[in-house]
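Supplementary notes for students who missed Thursday's class. We covered one full example, reproduced here. Read the sequence, then the structure, then the short commentary at the end.
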Amino acid sequence: MIFSRKPSMRRKLVLMFLGTTVAVHLILSAVAQKMTKSYFYDSESAHIENKFNGLNEKSSLDYTDPKAVKHFGKALINIWNLTDNKVTYQNSPILLPIESNNFFLKNDGDEYTSMWELEGNHYLSSSFFVNKENTLVLGLNVNHHIEFFEAVGTLMFWFTTIVSLLAGIYSAVIVNNGLKPLKKLEGYLARIRPGRLDIRVPKDELPEELENLAEVQNSMLDRLDLGFQRLSDFSTDIAHELRTPLTNMTTQMQVSLANDRSPDEYRDILGSNLEELERITKTINDTLYLAKAENSLLYKNNETLDLAKEMSQLIEYHNIIAEDKEIVIEFTGEGELYIDKHMFQRAMNNLLSNAIRHAHENTQICVKITHPNKSLGISISNIGDTISESTLPFIFDRFYRGDCSRENDSTTGAGLGLAITKSIIETYHGVISVTSKDGLTTFEILFPPPNSTS
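Structure (token representation):
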């Protein structure tokens, strides 16, 4: 099919350009033809009137006298003298169509010009009031003008047809050239594959109107590239996290089966395997929890929490672990927060356990609740090793653990705690950040004012 039902930018642009060109040309042609006709008719009417006035001034003619009218009639092509709307004299065999609807006489003393047709001939006539009984009608044959207008009309028709054809071809060429940048953009996008997300659309090669589109496309590709990279890293990390305990279990089972052992030895091996299975289970559960949190799939039973009470209970629980390292946890501040209690406890537990794990012995951990600019802030600081500047941007990434020496330590998690904490905080439109300088590491959480979010 030449014309499909699907909208086409090319077809629309061509038709719009062609339609505008033809419409403008037709309007200009109609205006020009009308002005030309008016000019010719006005010129002929003025010619008739000038002849009448000139001859009228040179001779005092009695328009009621046929002999006098004969002398006057020599100056014009056609003349009719009417008395009481009846022809009393005419200098040509042409019958004046007084009864026709195309011819009118005016008896109020003003000149009246009329166009009329008789037996295929066209006439332009003017009537002049002489007295109450007599009217003089002067007329000219304007067939040559009519033929000229018809010739011009035919010329305009063919000219418009040719112009329309040329305009259609020209508009098609212009539109095709104008859409070439889109084809170039299409070519770049067609090269994008899952393994070629590094391709970017060069804005310098596109016109100004497409620069914003190219920028949006490049931003989308950046997000896709980041998403694929994170997915690839996540797959690698989860495989690594599961491989280590599974390898340990396999090795222990192979060693235990190599020789006969006592029930106590088998019990120790099974206990060790159980610890590895619990570690795998925790990693899987944390991964699922993080995925749900990042996709807003967690069930939230929100309530207004007294943060002073909640933090005091959490600190009391963690004091048992902190006392082993002779660490003192200090807490100041108060406030309320509308949040799911279990999610809040999980986030704070992750931060407190992380602070205790990495704090030096005989140091202090400070927990503060503040209210900057009507917002609610929670900060947890500890004294330990300074986190390098290169590590800080990745501290909240999945499976990231800055201390490589503890990678296989069963006392550490899988590196999902801070990632889960960040997802929980962002679920409630909060922001979490970390700073580390001169051994002082501080995690800061900032929740917006209560009325700023739903």
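Commentary. Residues 301-452 form a domain with the Heat Shock Protein 90 fold (CATH 3.30.565.10). The mean pLDDT is 80. If anything here is unclear, bring it to office hours.
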